[in-house]
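User: For my dataset I need records formatted as: sequence, then structure tokens, nothing else. Please produce one.
Assistant:
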Amino acid sequence: FDSHLGYYQAMCDYYKKTVGLKSVGLPLNGFDFWFNGQPWRDAAGNYSLDQYMTRFKRVVEDYALGHRSIQMQSKSPLFVYFAHQTVHIPIQYRGIENACAHIVSSARRDYCNMIVEFDQALAETVEIMKAHGLWNNTLML
């Protein structure tokens, strides 16, 4: 890959960017959020989904600037592996809106809100691709 943004372990906190496996009996605890092989400590305190979307937008913008024609895009297609953290443990809802207020269980409500956030991120992903003229030649899995 030309670049990487994310974590390497499991159950990474969406805000603190720490992995705390002591709760499941493993003696691991520490910072785990990386940008191009370097720990990105300045990312702590921000919601991961926003950081992933900002990075995705930048990657697409940079690609579109350097590959303005279909011929250039065909010779050097864009490949993005974008595995969302959203809806994975720990369940940490951002709390901006509550589209799932009708759900009584707080755990299920938070999970539902995270699915709504994920759905909005997918819609934004499509819009970013469309805005740069890349959507008609895109395969999204």
